[in-house]
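Next comes this protein.

***
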Amino acid sequence: MRVGLFVTCLADVMRPSIGLATLELLKREGCEVIFPEGQTCCGQPAYNSGDRHTAQEFARKVISEFADVDYVVIPSGSCGGMVKTHYEELLNDSPEYRARAQWLAARTYELTDFLVNVLNVDSFDTTFQGSITYHDSCAGLRELGIKKQPRKLLDRLNHVEVKEMSGPEQCCGFGGAFSVKYGDISSRIVDLKCDDIEATEADAVVLGDLGCMMNIEGKLRRRGNHKTKVLHIAEVLTGLVGNETE
């Protein structure tokens, strides 16, 4: 099985351990992982800002880079949602690329969805242990239906206790450009999210989207909370934790 790994630009620049952990998970399951070294952005920032021309250029680039794989796996709900739900409409004026976008969308999976529904993974070799609470990132939840998959994986870990927040589906306030344009509103939203996280008294908040990770971790630290870890689910499943320490 040839699996293309689209690592995302944020993970590449801000937290490479996510990409390495995702690679490790796929290799453990016998996947032949294809990593196009020229990959960059999925085009979502341009798309959300109304710059369709730039977003189309990125979309065509991604489609060309992953044209020879069986699946594409993305450790990010927002980037996965961009490829899977927006590329076809974005490239609607080009019949050739629209068809290729459809082909790619049918083969693109967010990481936990791929592990659960394609690979049927039922065990993990991880050194991570402790209590966690899971944050449902907006794009993964609403565009891709990522809800049960990460919890099913976490429930298979022997030394991990999941403590649910009162509002795990509530937005963290990031929203890409939203947090820049409406900083005061964004700050208040993430404050409420951090209140909910801290109320669980979990050792770590775990999620599947780096934009949310950066926003939540930044707010927790500015509030003086240096105890609660902020981790990507791939890091938990492998024990390959990056910026945080176990």
